[in-house]
Amino acid sequence: MTIKAAIFDYGDTLVSTRMNWNKVRPKQLASLRTSLANDLPGLDLVRLGRDFLFLRAEARRMASAKHVETSAIESLKSAMSLQGMRDVDEELLQKGVDAFFEPEERNYSLIVGMAEALHSLKEMGLVLAVLSNATCGKLVRRSLQNHSLLNMFHAVMVSCELPRRKPAPEAFDAVLQVLNVNASETVMVGDLLRTDIAGANLMGMKSVLVDFLGDGTETNGGPPLPDAVVGYPEVLVKVIKSWL
Questions:
Q1: CA distances from 135 to 18, 21, 42, 139 (A)
Q2: Domain interval for residue 9
Q3: Using CA atoms, how far apart are residues 76 and 84, in angstroms rounded to an integer?
Q4: Are residues 237 and 158 in the same domain?
Q5: How many domains does the chain fold into?
Q6: Helix (H) or strand (E) holding 210
Q7: What is the pLDDT of residues 109-133, one digit of tens each?
Q8: Are 211 and 218 in contact (CB under 8 A)?
Q9: Are residues 163 and 192 in the same domain?
Q10: Domain finish residue from 105, 140, 164
């Protein structure tokens, strides 16, 4: 069957999210404290940061086991509740989350050649989408916008806004419904075997494992096995073109 759509993972597929976390993490906590200091003068902001990181780590473990994402806003809300603060305004929570992610987001870099590859795929008639396991949809969309990629995609879907996360079939179904295509007409492009490739294979999609950062951590053999492994965006275009 003809390939009509390509779904992309976000981190380390469209942009590199690799960074020195020992340097970035203190900046994130400082940014969080600064953003909330005037609005929440009675809160222990140092404790809030610690609790927030702990709850996010617990949420990641739960997400891996249950394939259900806890949003960053929910984790921050829970951290505040540990100090007796409840019914916090959603805009204030989003303000804190945005501030926390800002130092991290500043370090994201576009994968070299990705913009050109997306243009080529669109010229080939494919409809494009993003499906990301992430705790903040606003962060993903803002980052894509900042790298001039957002308008390339018909849909940008993030696990914290969905019932389930990759590799659960429900996550992929949500994108397929929006794109109005069948799984057999779709290619999934991502950097992780256990989420991107496993989920796509289960759905009956074509799957492409990318190793754009060149560390080979996911390319030493499955299962699951992708239909193709590529190291450069231009090679990705050639592979998908051969399937059309």
A1: 17, 17, 27, 9
A2: 5-16+109-243
A3: 13
A4: yes
A5: 2
A6: strand 206-210
A7: 999 999 999 999 999 999 999 999 9
A8: yes
A9: yes
A10: 105
Edge-first strand order for the sheet with 186-190 is 155-158, 127-132, 5-8, 186-190, 206-210, 228-230
- Residue tagged 């959603």 (tokens): 90
Residue owning tokens 């003809």? 2
- Give the amino acid at 54: F
Q: Are residues 89 and 203 in the same domain?
A: no
Q: Which CATH number does the domain housing residue 190 bear?
A: 3.40.50.1000
* Among candidate residues 203, 179, 196, the one with its CA nearest the CA of residue 230: 196
Dihedral pair phi/psi, residue 41, rounded to 5°: -65, -25
Q: What is the pTM of this model?
A: 0.95
In angstroms, the CA 48 to CA 81 distance is: 10
Count of beta carbons in the 10 Å neighbourhood of residue 156: 22
pLDDT (tens digit, 9 = 90+) per residue, 141-168? 999 999 999 999 999 999 999 999 999 9
Residues composing the chain: 244
CATH number at residue 81: 1.10.150
Do 223 and 124 lie in a common domain? yes
Amino acid identity at 186? T
